[in-house]
From TrEMBL:
The keyword Acetylation does not apply. Keywords: Cell membrane, Membrane, Transmembrane, Transmembrane helix. It is a multi-pass membrane protein. It holds the Pfam family ArsP_1. This is Permease. It comes from the Bacteria. It is found in: Cell membrane. Belongs to the UPF0718 family. The chain crosses the membrane at residues 40-62, 83-113, 133-158, 210-228, 243-263, 275-296, 308-331. Its main location: membrane.
Length: 332
């Protein structure tokens, strides 16, 4: 039953067969490079789009019960490592890219939440979410998906805890530290229809922002899958290169894409012989430390805090990458 759910419902293998049959009937040779690339592109774009829309709608409906004011009050009840865990877990239910997470991070920081808690949220929000968990299961299986989420939450909790203990509150820009939190007004209760409309708007808004990166990511994945020699990928990111994880992390940092756009690239790289740790480190780096998000974050924090944040994330992602490599025989 689980294999059926993973392969046919989440993985949509029936869709792959349907697309293959359609291309063959249209006279396309799916065994050729061009035909194989077209099959890979159509299958992944349609599959990711369907899963994205269903998942974002469901997650946004749940999120409607936890607006920022209520989330701030809930997180304010926790202290110490428990608060960092709550901040990281809150990030998993916010289907945002790194740039979209920063305004909420700024709002939480302005409201007086501990700096470490808000950074735990900022790390986990783009790196780990429920939507990506389901999509990871559909492509890599539940073991890798679960390990990815656990390692991502560990980075978020430890990273936020380190920042908290460094007492870098003065490294937040003055306009955020001096902001006065508004009165604790309980948000108006939403009707079921209001929540459905909110979920629909979140789904369409997220889809519009993410879809171009899905097209780019799947296009790159199709190129890697059918045009890049396997020996080249193995040489750069395979077991023979012990620096592959570090290289994948550093290459991923300046790039900007949603996790839904990076998963097809990771799928293609893994299929070509790249080590699991290098592939997942690349994914984490792209989604967490994109250059546009760092530029936006610089408006809220000073260079020292920004540098600490980047250093913690890079080191954590590299360590997790080597951890995945050590566990690859168990996970694959």
């Amino acid at each position: 039953m689980w294999l059926f759910i993973q392969n046919q419902i989440l993985g949509m293998q029936w869709l792959n067969g349907l697309i293959s049959d359609g291309l063959i009937r249209a006279g396309v040779d799916i065994e050729s490079r061009l035909g194989g690339s077209l099959q890979f592109f159509l299958y992944d774009v349609i599959k990711i789009t369907l899963l994205l829309c269903v998942l974002i709608f469901a997650i946004s409906y749940i999120q409607s019960f936890f607006p920022p004011e209520r989330s701030r009050k809930i997180m304010g009840r926790f202290h110490g490592i428990g608060a960092n865990i709550m901040g990281a877990l809150l990030g998993t239910v916010t289907p945002f890219c790194s740039c979209s997470s920063i305004p909420l991070f700024m709002g939480f920081t302005s409201a007086g939440l501990p700096l470490g808690v808000t950074f735990s949220f900022l790390i986990s929000s783009p790196m780990v979410d429920l939507g990506s968990l389901v999509l990871l299961i559909s492509i890599f299986g539940y073991k890798i998906a679960a390990a990815y989420v656990v390692f991502g939450l560990i980075i978020a909790v430890i990273g936020g805890s380190i920042i908290e203990r460094m007492h870098l509150e003065n490294e937040v820009e003055d306009f955020i530290r001096q902001a006065v939190a508004g009165p604790d007004i309980e948000p108006a209760e939403l009707t079921v229809w209001d929540r459905l409309e909110f979920a629909r708007d979140q789904m369409t808004g997220t889809f519009k922002k993410v879809f171009p990166y899905i097209l780019i990511g799947v296009g790159i994945g199709a190129l890697i899958h059918n045009w890049i020699p396997e020996t080249m990928v193995e040489t750069v990111l395979g077991s023979q290169n012990q620096w592959g994880v570090i290289l994948a992390t550093l290459v991923g940092v300046p790039m900007y894409a949603d996790i839904f756009g990076t998963i097809p690239i990771a799928e293609a790289l893994l299929g070509k012989g790249a080590l699991l740790g290098a592939v997942l480190s690349f994914m984490m780096a792209v989604t967490t430390l994109s250059l546009p998000s760092l530029i936006l974050l610089r408006k809220a924090v000073k260079p020292k805090l920004l540098g600490v944040f980047v250093a913690i994330c890079v080191v954590g992602i590299i360590l997790v990458g080597y951890g995945f490599n050590a566990l690859r025989y168990v996970l694959l």
